[in-house]
Description:
Elements: H1 66-73, H2 90-95
Amino acid sequence: KCDLAGNQGPFTGVWQASPLPSGGGGGGTAKFTTWEAGHRVPFIAHWPDMIKPNTVSNVIGSHLDIMPTIANLANFTLPSNRSFDGIDLSAVLFDGSDQGHEYLFHPDMLGILS
């Protein structure tokens, strides 16, 4: 478990008896569900003299936000003929903004949405 994310303990929900593939054969974990720990991990950023040390934010972010954020920092304009789900989070990193995603939409293998 990641100490930075806290010790939430195992989830013992309905998928425990599910036939979903879990690497152990039998649905004994939350893998492939929205309860899987990969959905709620810390994002750690380090950039001396740019990002204030020991800053903590509760902004909801996603791996989808990395490209728009880096594009903005590089003064690169993303193609307008494509749709991007991520948002630029540079204001969160540098200015302490609390403006991230209002929500993220993710279906799991059971068709459950979170």
